Every structure is written in C-alpha cells, then in structure tokens.
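Changelog note: in this version the structure field was regenerated for every chain. One regenerated record is shown below for reference.
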Amino acid sequence: MEDLHSVQLDSISIKASCCQSDLCSDYSNLCSSTHKSHTLPILHAPIVATFDDDLLAGIPLRQSKHSDLETIGALRAQEDWSQLIADMRGYRGSLGEKFNIVSVTAPECLPDRIEALAYMVEYAFLYDDYLENATISDGAAVTRARLGHKKMGELAIGKMAAIDPERTVYAVKAWTEWAAQVKEQPKDTSFRNFVDYFKCRVEDLGAGFWASTLIFGLALTLSHFEVEQCQRLTSHGFEAITLVNDLYSWDKERDEASLAGQEEVMNAVWVLMREHGIGENRAKALLLEKIMQCVRRFTVVVDNVNIDPDVSTEVKRFVNAVMSVHAGNVLWSRYCPRYHREEGWSELQREMIEKGVDAVLKARDLGSK
C-alpha cells in the first residue's frame, strides 16, 4: 500500500503557507490519482446507541474511539481564532461532553486525519457564525479579521496538506465555493414558501464542503464520474442533514433573533409557521415529516446501492458514509452544547479550554497525532 502521508506529486504542490485560488481550479488531480484508497479500516468505532424513532430507526450509531484527537484539533482552532481574530474560548461549536461532531458523523475517519479535519470543521463553524453576527465597523478590527481569516485558512489547509496533499486540493476547492456562497447569501429571510427556502438552504449547507471532508477523512479515491454519481445518490441524504440542522437549531436561532430585535429567522420552522399560519410545535412536527420523507428516500437509495454490482466499492463507501453523517448529525444535535445551553464539555475539554491544549498535553504526557 502506498504511503499517502509522504506522497510527492508532479502535478501539484501544496504548502502550509499557501491558500491561493490556483489550488481551487479543478479536482482532476484527485480524480486521476495514482493512489489506491485504504480498504475500509476498523477504527474501533462501536455502536454507541440505537433509537427506535422515525429519524434513526434501524440506523446504527457509531462513534470513533479517537474523539480526544478531535477535541485537540477543534480547540486548537479556537485558540488560533482567539489569537488571530477575537477571543472565542468556550465557543459552542463542534464539541460536546457526550459527542463530538466528527467522531459521530465520520466514525470511520482515519485516526491520523481526525485532528486536522476537526480543525477545519471547527473553523467552518467559527467562520459561519462570525459572518452571520459580524458587526465590525472599526477599520483596524476589519483588517485584523481579514488577515486572521487568511491565516486561519492557511493553517487549516496546511494541516490537511501535510497528510494528504492530493485530497486537500478537492477540500480547498469545496471550501472556497462554500465560503463564497455563505458570504454572498442574501440576509433576506422573507421566503414565500418552504420550497423557495429549501432550495436556498441546501445550497447554504455546503454539501460539497462536507463531502470533501469525507473524501479526505476516509481517504476515498473517486473518478470524476464517481464524484458526480455520489452527488446524485446522496442528494436526499444531504437534504435530511440540512433539515435536521434546522429542527434542532431552531430554539437557539429563535432566541438569538429575539435578542437582536429581528422578527424573522432563516429557519425552516419559521418559514413553515408563516406559510401555513401555524404555531411553533405544529411547524416542528411538519418539518419532522419532511425530514422523514428524505430519510426514507435515502434509505431506499442506500439499500439499492449496496446490492448493485455495477456500483464501485468507493462509491458504496461514500454513500454509506453519508448515511452515517445523517445518523451522527441527529445524535450530536440532540446533545451538543451548541443547541442546548444546559449541556457542557468533558473533563478533558474543560481543562484544555481553561489551561490551553499544549499545556494539558504536556502535563498529561500526551501528544496529538
């Protein structure tokens, strides 16, 4: 098996200090890769829960046993953000006492990639929240934020490129496209109906970005045709992921809008309330029905893919990985501090937030991978 960590490419070179648009032109290098992906590894990701409910019935919920590495990566991102842009210690992003988002949505992520991927995902949370709530008017602060974002991007890309430069190309392309979408997303929340909102919301999710994290984390090798095939096959899966986010983030977003004096919220619950003239609980129930429709459709697709001899192993791995993303997203959303103020952090997370990642690693004689 060729070592993906030390591969040298003739066609492209990514350096930790580079975050330029020429890296985002195309993912043809990834598609024509000479690598062969790892066979599906056993990463000690046991089933941690099963739920007999409409969203998760029959779907095994797994969690990587390397979640401490995710804690390290995510908190390093918070530390860098605090140093470069603004203090975000204790930020409610991807981590939680019970579950971290990467560990449950990508339980088969290779252990040596978890920390780098967690850094990128936490940066994505910070970036999204920062743009939504940014009210900077001071010129110096604007310059600091702009330079800080650039440096954070370089750090995130550098960590991934040091492990797998080829797949990082695809991640950078997807990240750049998603970031541009978020930045240009209209702030108008006056959607006339759920259909109009849903189309905009799915684009806002950044399915390409999240797909690229799976390709990197699982070291998948997909041809250009297979990338397009995966996009088609997993559309219902990402629709479910999008709506689950709206369902569980509603209370947080409603309260934040109220504090900001905003009457409208960019959330499916709000859109359904206004479209149908119904209350919050009925709108949540209606949204749950729509999520269940997406899950049922995606489950049929996954079952058919798994028995189709014409579908490649790599595509099957990707499609099943998206099902894990859905299941893990539901599990994480039910318990994460981001959506539930009563939830907190693990002992290790609290200690690292208070004392710093490196100080705790040194005191415990540990090291990030």
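Spot check on this record: The two ends are 21 Å apart (CA to CA). Residues 1-44 have pLDDT under 50 and may be disordered.
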